[in-house]
Amino acid sequence: MTFLEPLTLTGRHVILEPLAMEHHDGLLEAARDGELWKLWYTSVPEPEAMAAEIRRRLALQELGSMLPFTTRLIDPGTGGPGRIIGMTTYMNIDPATPRVEIGSTWNAASVQGTGTNPDSKLLLLRHAFEVLGCPAVEFRTHWLNHQSRDAIARLGAKQDGVLRSHSRTSDGNLRDTVVFSILEHEWPAVRTGLEHRLARRG
């Protein structure tokens, strides 16, 4: 048994289930909702590259460095899995510490601001801190992705620093990467904040 095995996590608004090739068509529709691949500061695959991106994430899962999820809405009628709205992952997995990064996340434009993202983060953070026993959970984003930086800060994460000229984007430009983290002793306050945000949405 490895440190992180595929699993399903269920929240108020979303279900995170293990990524599979059978999710391809649903992920295509989710990415087309807002043409997310056209946002220069994100790494959402273009429609013709979606299958390769699923295979890439599954290959990293086999190597033990990533645990990828497909994000679904909860069907209000059945309470079960509804339509696919995006992807998220545990990545840069360090089983020795243990420590994970939550990242490579995107959601369809029509569900942004509806509570799906904080619900997803609550599920992943709760599992990381309360089941896996992580002393810290990390987040990284592009310096110029202010929407993502603001969303991570709203979670209660603290900015650790900036990795300047850290990597190249798909268009070849150098990217400055902002690193945030939440520590184990900060988790109870972060959890309360996320639960409060979700309760206000009903």
Automatic annotation (TrEMBL):
Transmembrane segments annotated in the record for this chain: none
One family name in Pfam for this protein: Acetyltransf_3
Superkingdom classification of source: Bacteria
Gene3D superfamilies: 3.40.630.30
InterPro entries from the UniProt entry: Acyl_CoA_acyltransferase, GNAT_dom
Domain N-acetyltransferase, chain residue ranges per copy: 14-158
One function term, GO molecular function aspect: acyltransferase activity, transferring groups other than amino-acyl groups
The protein, known as: RimJ/RimL family protein N-acetyltransferase
Organism: Pseudarthrobacter niigatensis
